Amino acid sequence: MNTLFDKIWDSHVVSSVSDGPVQLYIDRHYCHEVTSPQAFEGLRTRGLKVFRPAQTTCSPDHNIPTINQDQPISDPISRNQVETLEKNATEFGVTYYGLGNPKNGVIHIIGPENGITRPGMTIVCGDSHTSTHGAFGAVAFGIGTSEVEMVLASQCILQSKPKTMRINVNGKLGKGVTAKDVVLYITSKVTTGGGTGYFIEFAGDVIRNMSMEERMTVCNMSIEMGARGGMIAPDQTTIDYVKGREFAPKGEEWDKAEAYYRTLYSGDDAVFDKELYFDAEDIKPMVTYGTNPGMGMAIDSAIPTLDTIDEAGKETYIKSLDYMGFKPGEKMLGKKIDYVFLGSCTNGRIEDFREFASYVKGKKKAEGIVCWLVPGSWGVEKQIREEGLDKILNEAGFEIRQPGCSACLAMNDDKVPAGKYAMSTSNRNFEGRQGPGARTILCGPLVAAAAAITGHITDPRENL
After folding, report:
1. What is the pTM (predicted TM-score) of this model?
2. Alpha carbon of 246 to those of 242, 254, 278: distances in Å?
3. Is 198 in contact with 162 (CB distance < 8 Å)?
4. Contact residues for 376 (Cβ-Cβ < 8 A; gap 6+)
5. Average confidence (pLDDT) over 38-42
6. Where exactly are the structural domains of the chain?
7. By the 8 A CB rule, do 30 and 130 touch?
């Protein structure tokens, strides 16, 4: 029997070239302001319309500020990017959720929460973290600007079929271990190149027991292993999440859709090109110490020493530690931090805010620590207030900002200054990712919360 990936991919092939790419039909196309302007301009130049406008959804997220969104964007470059997306969406008749719209937010968060993302779909966006949507049992992956134009013009894309990998995580997670810790652990073992050429299916007890929010976190970071994307077979958890959402099928259409969703799984005899196994008991709260997501370690262990690094990686390793101001063999616990960021398409959902709030409840934010708590959408922001999490956070000395990509990347006002350390729940810790010279330590919501309270890297398990 075919893998889940094969089932969805093969059913979307329009035509194929011998020993070449296939023409793949795309069910859902997401657009933001950074990678779409040239694509729309290409259509304009060629006198083309968007082939199926109902299947494209646009929302600005990278460049938007996370305060004073009712005022004009002050940065001229960001303002131009956002205004251009609005102009293009209006001219070409595609759905646009702009600033002030209750559906505006990070594109990879608003898609699922509105029922636009569904099992069995092929989904693309000019953004690498499109892999997030694979949590629903969809083939979802990022594309380049020329490919964005291709999808707008034809609702198809030329792609070579990747190999398949299954990563199994079995057992029971320990206290204080989150989905982010699981994926940081896997990335540290697989490395940032271990998934190159593959589409990954995540499976096993741990994955099955995850909520949809947690599954999205895992699939979001599949590309940090070099993979084309990540996915998880839909089950009752998936169906319960999708059912009743605004753009999900209704009535008889829902019954048909649900029956189809239940066929989406890899059979017992499915063959993967590669298969890996990990034990939940080996996973602890994680932090990164270097400048790529694969340079991760258990929070209570020590930075690897030089003799444990293979020859090919030594130069990068030394350069990375030099940038971070760390030394081989050092402990990360107790290191002072300056900024804390909760948010992004990795950890900007309601469960992330629940975890953070549960830890800081009854405590006080450390003096001198700058904390940006940024919901991924207005839908998440609404839930935060309905559940009273904002009051818990306010009493502990935190403020909720307005939705957007925020400090995940240095494309808006939320930049970490040079030399400062940021505990970040986002997905990448590359040099300058959060601002020129910024030093990023990736972590999950609980580790971020502990650092926000103490002012230094702290094992959250001590206070759970």
Report:
1. 0.98
2. 9, 12, 37
3. yes
4. 105, 106, 108, 109, 110, 343, 344, 345, 348, 349, 403
5. 98
6. 1-284, 286-463
7. yes
Residue that is written with structure tokens 């690094």 in the block: 309
Which pair of tokens denotes residue 90? 């209006």
Question: Do the bridges between strand 22-25 and strand 156-159 make them parallel or antiparallel, or are there none, so unpaired?
Answer: antiparallel
Q: What angle, 0 to 180 degrees and rounded to 10, lies between the N-to-C axes of helices 350-360 and 212-220?
A: 100
Q: Which residue do the tokens 């719209």 mark?
A: 101
Instruction: Please indicate whether the domains covering 1-284 and 286-463 agree at the CATH topology level.
Output: yes
Q: Which single residue is written with the structure tokens 């594109």?
A: 107
Comparing CA positions, the residue from 74, 81, 97 lying closest to residue 34 is: 81
**Tens of pLDDT along 313-331?**
899 999 999 999 999 999 9
Q: How confident is the model at residue 19 (pLDDT cuts 50, 70, 90)?
A: confident
* Half-sphere exposure at residue 291, Cβ-oriented, CA atoms within 13 angstroms: 21
Q: Which helix (H) or strand (E) holds 426?
A: none
The predicted-structure confidence for 149-194, as pLDDT tens digits, reads as follows 999 999 999 999 999 999 999 999 999 999 999 999 999 999 999 9
- Tally of residues, the chain: 464
How far apart CA 424 and CA 442 sit, in angstroms, is 5
Residue pair 149/48 in contact by the 8 Å Cβ criterion:
no
20-24 long-range CB contacts below 8 Å, 24 or more apart?
Answer: 20/160, 21/158, 21/159, 21/160, 22/158, 22/159, 22/160, 22/161, 23/156, 23/157, 23/158, 24/122, 24/156, 24/157, 24/158, 24/159
- Percentage of residues of the chain with pLDDT beyond 90: 98
Confidence of residue 463 (pLDDT cuts 50, 70, 90): confident
Q: Identify the architecture of domain 286-463 in CATH.
A: 2-Layer Sandwich (3.30)
Distance CA 79, CA 55 (A): 26
pLDDT digits (tens, 9 = 90+) for 258-297: 999 999 999 999 999 999 999 999 999 999 999 999 999 9
Distance between CA atoms of residues 322 and 359, nearest Å: 32
The tokens of 226 are what?
A: 């070099």
CATH number belonging to domain 1-284: 3.30.499.10
Q: If you ran DSSP here, which 8-state letter would residue 416 be given?
A: P
Amino acid letter for position 197: G
Residue 409 in tokens: 């990347």
Distance CA 158, CA 18 (A): 13
Q: Are 363 and 396 in contact (CB under 8 A)?
A: yes
